[in-house]
Amino acid sequence: MGIASIIKLETHLVANRLHASKRAGDRSCCQWGIVGTGYMGEQFSRYLGQTEGCNVCSVCSRDAERARKFMKRHGAVSGYSNLAGMLSTECGHLDVIYVATPVSTHYEIAMQCIKAGFNVLCEKPLCKTASQAKALFDAADANGVLLVEGMWSSHLPTYRKAKEWIAEGAIGSVRHLRVAIRKSMQGSEKSCLFDFGAYAVSFAMQFLEKGRCKVFGSSTCDVEGDDRRWDIDIVAPSGVTAAVRLS
């Protein structure tokens, strides 16, 4: 990161901290709790601090020192190294909890938050199995809270425009779509399917009609057993097909 970028970032963080001090006790603001202080938690909190009507109020990390530094950067008023402690102490103070931990921990953390009565925004992918996803949404319904997967890409203006063109018949009938992503692995997630692959699958499903699809897939793993390549083919009920290629 260059000097100019560092100065710009620090300027934003200073402004965010000033805003946070004013918003901390404002119940008209949406008060957020952040679980996970890695890359996504950092990015999300930085932009949340620049969003009107929102405030980074509390943070939880397995590392108490990391939580303290995160609080200082973003102006949060409380920090925890234990999720149970955060949930019991912040009941009535937080409006939403954002889960930004590794995928393998999403299910347990989201379920804890839901059962404690908190609304949850969980990073993509929500969890690793359909049964886990069903259990989470069932629990959210039972506890009267909101559960949302953070698939931001589905809200891009380009997605909306593509859907408009398809609805208007501007490109004719869609028969086939192809999604291909290749990138270097970064961060703690070692699975290409559960990292950037989630975006590709979500994109395909955006443009296929609802219904039970047929899905065929094969993968290639490295010596450690982590998937490094996927070839996924999807057939919708109408016969429209999709090819997802990841590596």
Write the layout of secondary structure elements.
Elements: H1 3-23, E1 30-35, H2 39-48, E2 54-60, H3 64-74, E3 78-80, H4 83-89, E4 96-99, H5 103-115, E5 119-123, H6 130-143, E6 147-150, H7 157-168, E7 176-181, H8 197-206, E8 214-221, E9 227-235, E10 241-246
Parallel strand pairs: 1-2, 1-4, 2-3, 4-5, 5-6, 7-10
Antiparallel strand pairs: 8-9, 9-10
Q: How would you characterize this protein structure?
A:
- By secondary structure, the chain is of the alpha/beta class.
- 40% of the residues lie in helices and 23% in strands.
- The protein has a six-stranded parallel beta sheet, sandwiched between helices. The chain has a four-stranded mixed beta sheet with strand order 7-10-9-8, with helices on one face.
- Helix 5 runs parallel beside helix 6.
- The radius of gyration is 20 Å and the shape is globular.
Task: Name some characteristics of this structure.
single chain, 247 residues, 4-stranded mixed sheet
Q: How much helix, percentage-wise, in residues?
A: 25-40%
* Strand residue content: 15-25%
Which structural category do the helix and sheet elements fall into?
alpha/beta
- Give the radius of gyration: 20 Å
Order of helices and strands: HEHEHEHEHEHEHEHEEE
Mean pLDDT: 89
How far apart are the first and last residues' alpha carbons, in Å? 27 Å
What's the count of strands? 10
Low-confidence stretches: none
Q: Order of strands across the widest beta sheet?
A: 3-2-1-4-5-6
Shape: globular
Total DSSP helices? 8
Instruction: Give the biggest beta sheet.
Output: 6 strands, parallel
